[in-house]
Design goal:
This protein is α/β, with parallel strands linked by helices. It folds into four domains: about 20-105, no CATH class; about 105-145; about 185-325, 434 Repressor (Amino-terminal Domain), CATH 1.10.260.170; about 360-550, Vaccinia Virus protein VP39 (Rossmann fold, 3-Layer(aba) Sandwich). The protein has helices at about 80-90, 95-105, 110-145, 155-160, 200-205, 250-265, 270-275, 285-295, 295-315, 320-325, 330-345, 370-380, 395-405, 415-435, 455-465, 475-485, 560-565; strands at about 175-180, 210-215, 220-225, 235-240, 240, 330, 385-390, 410-415, 445-450, 465-470, 495-500, 520-530, 540-545, 555-560, 570. It is built from 17 helices and 15 strands. The strands form five sheets. A seven-stranded mixed beta sheet has the order 9-8-7-10-11-13-12, with helices on both faces. A two-stranded antiparallel sheet has the order 1-6. Helix 11 (about 330-345) crosses helix 14. It binds S-adenosylmethionine. S-adenosylmethionine (SAM) binds near residues 367, 398, 414, 415 and 453. Belongs to the class I-like SAM-binding methyltransferase superfamily. DOT1 family. GO terms for molecular function: histone binding; histone H3K79 trimethyltransferase activity. Its main location: nucleus. One of its GO terms (cellular component) is nucleus.
Length: about 575
């Protein structure tokens, strides 16, 4: 999904980066050592009284002899000379007090050099060892995911699952299977009415033809149709190679649909025709990959026909519907791919306007990615019996994913008009895509064009929610305070996922307000990884805050009483102490 938002990684210029200025006119930070120069500048031919490195000794350097500068030498001369001296001092002089003390302790510079080198080599070796270990682990991981895993046919028949990850178009998340605890697959999916108007992939390419390469005569834009597994629906595509700036790639999109259909909906024998881990060289996806690399458009069209006839046959004899009725799990990737399809078709064509917010305001737009959400929802034990709400739901991604992946009752509230409009489009597309993939979702409701503040129906949902999401990364302090007020009546056990802590760091219970909901919250910090959020490719922190049945004793810690402060002990407040 696209990066929407500001570059939030900008940070103010660090103080250490500021070069020394005419502060050079003030002495470096070594005031304890008094130097009484008798000579101006560095003229070693003149007699100099040294203190510092050779504290207490009086040395007269010989003519031409090189000597280590004392700090006193650095603030001699006029302003310009002192500035130059200061530069030298900070860049490589003896200014570092600790360093200088070390120098004083050691007998000679020659002795230091080998020791330092030894130290550096030691630390380099350990760093190498770590990075070596990391890269070995990484190689192992990649190998595990990309190498076809041996199949135990009988086990597979029993569970009706595929374990492996495909080496081609689907990502590694393929290995994560979610246990089906509610009717995720619609057992009657093949008996649904046939008329559905979906946003087709054809429109996405046709509307932005300038983003597609037509130079290669082998790949001319061609209309093709792709069959879906259960519903009698075929999506129209315009097959074309895309330029770098094209956000929709029809060739990859088709491959993902074929691969997902085979992995989730086809019985073993048919699946192997599309993806075969044991003998990949001849399966359809491998031939597709090769044809893409050869820019062989005719072959791509032929492969789509081959795939369509396989799907038509399996659909006709009811093998695919039977297969999903037996499934006990579904791959998380199916959820992520349906989300991806809806986002590409419903949101992306018009996403630019989402950027039209006031910088650093509460309305800055940014998104949490499906894999991150799956992890966070899992940590909160979201399930089909629970209630979820996203406060500031944007185009509805999080609400939709919670309803689809966990089958829970799912709500979203969004104030901005454009995000609300895209949310409507995306939800419509989502309903239809669920039908063609034969999956169901929990009840969903959005409060669009409305604020979550002072909103009675929203407050009613918040009060009975089990999991609340608030992407408060850029909420200002006023809105953050209002958000906390919304949580006053949360039930015990409710969990809040947020990007900034709900309980302020260093919070202690004020005995004037022990009844504040914050006193009953436990806020835990977690780390998200690269590409988990849309506003940065780097990792960061997120928080899960749980409402406890009792006061969180951690917040009872306060400043120790004056009598105890000297003892250096921390005082734990309790009902018998009154010193806050
Ligand atoms: C950073 S986006 C989060 C979108 C989505 N929840 C996600 O994490 O992918 C925050 C959203 O909160 C919305 N928002 C800010 N203040 C709001 C309010 N008082 N009521 C409802 N929505 C609000 C903004 O318009 C924006 O769309």
């Amino acid at each position: 999904m696209a990066l929407l938002g500001l570059d939030l990684d900008r940070s103010p210029v660090r103080r250490e980066d500021t070069p020394p200025t005419s502060s050079a006119t003030s002495p470096p930070e070594t005031a304890g050592d008094i130097v009484k120069p008798t000579a101006i500048g560095n003229d070693s031919r003149q007699e100099t009284v040294w203190k510092g490195a050779d504290r207490g000794k009086t040395t007269v350097p010989r003519v031409g002899e090189k000597r280590t500068k004392s700090y006193g030498d650095y603030y001699k001369g006029n302003a310009l000379q002192q500035l130059l001296n200061a530069t030298e001092y900070f860049v490589g002089g003896v200014g570092d007090r600790r360093q200088r003390r070390k120098l004083e302790k050691r007998e000679s510079l020659e002795e230091i050099a080998p020791r330092k080198r030894k130290q550096t080599i030691k630390s380099e070796t350990s760093a190498e060892k770590i990075s070596d270990k990391k890269s070995t682990e990484r190689r192992k991981q990649i190998k595990e995911h990309s190498e076809p895993k041996p199949h135990n046919e009988s086990e597979q028949e029993q569970s009706g699952e595929q374990n492996g990850c495909t080496p081609w178009f689907l990502s590694h998340e393929m290995s994560k299977n979610v246990k089906i605890t509610w009717s995720f697959f619609d057992p009657e999916a093949d008996n649904k009415p046939k008329e559905l108007e979906l946003t087709s992939a054809y429109t996405l390419v046709n509307d932005r033809l300038d983003r597609y390469v037509m130079k290669n005569p082998q790949i001319t834009p061609r209309e093709v149709y792709l069959l879906y597994p259960l519903f009698d629906y075929q999506e129209k595509y315009l097959l074309a190679e895309c330029k770098l700036n094209a956000w929709f790639n029809p060739i990859a999109d088709i491959a993902r649909v074929m691969e997902l259909t085979a992995t989730v909906y086809m019985p073993e024998k048919a699946r192997k025709k599309v993806i075969d881990f044991d003998n990949p060289s001849n399966c359809l996806i491998k031939r597709w990959d090769d044809a893409v690399n050869r820019h062989d458009g005719d072959q791509l069209v032929q492969l789509i026909e081959e795939y369509n006839s396989l799907v038509a046959k399996l659909r006709k004899n009811g093998q695919m519907i039977q297969h999903i009725r037996q499934r006990k799990t579904f791959p998380q990737l199916l959820v992520h791919e349906i989300m991806n399809q809806c986002y590409l078709r419903g949101v992306l064509p018009d996403y630019r306007k989402l950027r039209s917010y006031k910088a650093f305001s509460n309305y800055v737009y940014g998104e949490l990615m499906p894999s991150f959400l799956s992890r966070a929802f899992n940590q909160c034990n979201l399930s089909h019996t629970k209630v979820f709400i996203d406060l500031g739901s944007g185009v509805g991604n999080c609400t939709i994913q919670a309803a689809l992946e966990y089958g829970c009752e799912s709500y979203g509230v969004e104030i901005m008009d454009h995000a609300s409009r895209l949310c409507r489009l995306q939800t419509e597309e989502f309903e239809k895509r669920c039908a063609i993939w034969g999956v169901r979702h929990g009840a969903m409701k959005f409060f669009l064009g409305e604020s979550f503040v002072d909103n009675a129906p929203v407050q009613e949902v918040i009060d009975r929610s089990d999991v609340i999401l608030v992407n408060n990364y850029l909420f200002d302090s006023e809105l953050s305070k209002k958000v906390v007020d919304l949580f006053s009546n949360l039930k015990t056990g409710t969990q809040i996922i947020s990007l900034k802590p709900i309980v302020p760091p260093g919070y202690t219970i004020s005995w004037g307000h022990p009844e504040s909901i914050l006193s009953r919250m436990k806020c835990t910090r977690y780390t998200y990884g690269e590409n988990d959020v849309s506003w940065t490719s780097k990792g960061g922190f997120y928080y899960i805050t749980e409402v406890l049945p009792h006061i969180n004793e951690e917040y009872l810690r306060a400043l120790p009483a004056r009598s105890q402060r000297t003892r250096g002990k921390e005082l734990v407040l309790n009902a018998f102490t009154n010193n806050v």
